[in-house]
Write a structure and sequence with these properties.
CATH class of the largest domain: Alpha Beta
Structural class: alpha/beta
CATH architecture of the largest domain: 3-Layer(aba) Sandwich
CATH topology of the largest domain: Rossmann fold
Oligomer: single chain
Strand content: 15-25%
Radius of gyration: 23 Å
Distance between the termini: 91 Å
Number of strands: 12
Number of domains: 3
Helix content: 40-55%
Order of helices and strands: HHHEHEHEHEEHEHEHEHEHEHEE
Low-confidence stretches: 1-8, 57-62
Shape: elongated
Mean pLDDT: 85
CATH superfamily of the largest domain: Response regulator
Length: about 350
Amino acid sequence: MAGPVRRRKKPSLAEVARIAGVSISTVSKVANGGVDVSDATRERVERILAERGYVATRKRRGSLIPVELITRDMYNPLTLDVLRGIIDAAASTGLDISVSRYPDNAPDHRWIDEIHAAGRRGVIALTSILDDDERARFRSHGLEVVAIDPLNRPDESTTSVGATNWAGGLQATEHLLGLGHTKIAMLTGFPEAMASRARVSGFRAAMGTAGIELDESMVLDGDFTYDSGLELGTELLRRSDRPTAVFAASDLPALGVIEAARRRGLRVPEDLSVVGFDDLIMAQVSAPPLTTVRQPLDQMGAVAVQMIAALIADGPPDHALHTELATRLVVRGSTAPPAA
């Protein structure tokens, strides 16, 4: 008597993309009849899909996969940069993106039920804090989740995308050290945020490698706002032993420090060097233009779209994927060697 017939496991989009040497979104477009793919690429991907027995989940003609983007701050420039990458990628991946604000006071997690009731298939959570109850509620509704730049460390079930924050903190500090600064202060941003801790760790590593004993009073906790940078910058610059350089864990507080220096009659960069993190649009047009560590924010949004499309198509993998995209230092006019 013949044994049970074993069904061939459907290959994942990520596996096909790796074999074909293309992105997940390109495989998704080919599998679901999308356009904007060259004939040669389409033929190669279709051949690999056929060889591995891939059968696409059929959608109604003209329909898109509904996905919710939740964010804490709609008006933050960082949100807008990430959203640009999400929208551009979604247009070619077959996703319909809706945007909502993450509710701060929702202990019963009813907002997750509402997302499911609205017919969403997945959620992209930007700078969120997802707790165990929320993750369990997502799973109970069959909602796939991708976190972008999460404030808390993702667990093994949560796919996420972020940036190389530790390396960025190291780069920023090494730049100031290379200019000759030794009295460097740091504004950490949210001390509980995972990105903040990584940037501070990179800062400490660079100072330690340079053999400089860190003055802990020069490491100040705040948040990622302009007002925080203005307040803490004013505090630092009032000191008799004020720093010659400040590294802020985000661009907005860095710009606040520049304003604090202006109010104290100090020139940037002649009297004070300032470095930020993010490379938001205002960093390029500030006076002076801000030296900063660039996060590939739009690329982070695009990668999140590819991830959520793959999760919806293939289901959750055995182990969640955590991706970090490279940062790089952009030197502009806000840094110079310390005054004699």
